[in-house]
Amino acid sequence: MSGTGTNLQALLDTVHGREAEVVAVAASVAGAPALARAERLDVPTAVFARSAYADRHVRDAALADWLAARGARLVVLAGYMELLDGAFLSRFPGAVINVHPSLLPAFPGLAAIEQALAYGVKVFGVTVHFVDAGVDTGAVILQRAVELPDAREPAQVLAALRPLEHELLPRAVALFARGALAADPENPRRTIVDPAVAEAVAETVAEAGADPGPAAGVARADEANRAGEG
Ligand code: GRF
Fold this sequence. Notes:
Blueprint: H1 6-14, E1 25-27, H2 33-39, E2 45-47, H3 56-69, E3 75-77, H4 86-91, E4 96-100, H5 112-119, E5 123-130, E6 140-147, H6 154-177, E7 181-184, E8 187-193, H7 195-208
Parallel strand pairs: 1-2, 3-4
Antiparallel strand pairs: 4-5, 5-6, 7-8
This protein binds 5-O-phosphono-beta-D-ribofuranosylamine.
5-O-phosphono-beta-D-ribofuranosylamine binds next to helix 1 and strand 4.
């Protein structure tokens, strides 16, 4: 991650030690508040700031090595505000997911909520998706909409979307951990979710879940460097 880490907190609160183990937390920004959330639970952390490496590819290789060495089998971009290169993705095939604060394919990339407000939409939403080489273009895993016909301020939309993110991202991680996600052979863009497992996972996450609450703002600590993920 790169910033506040409320989605990380949701994962730590709901799936960690239950449906999956959070084995490592990496940040692209030194001092990201998200790091402290992991440290409190003795989850190993490290910072992979782009400025510390010759280029993005060298950094992504170091990040992949570090995660692999800790046994990561799924990489969750929980507010990771940079793109990962193809070599990184090939180290974790079909096992990198992201949470994005819009109903993709609408409003990919940076400032999704601001984009949606500027467009004047009445329905906002959250998407959890697999990460591919594009910007927020991978196959959708879970998605949920919320009607906000009078929304004007990003903070208002963020407040409505945060609880959805904190529910859908843990659910997606638990579904992955249980092997309940499959690509539809007829259309690999379509992710088939085992409905029985989906129901069980929804209950588990809801029971475990104390919502970490709204963030101070849309996390964009590393926006200047960011190429478009998030
Ligand atoms: C979330 O809005 C997420 O959708 C986007 O980055 C933000 C991360 O927030 N990808 P947090 O750091 O988890 O609080």
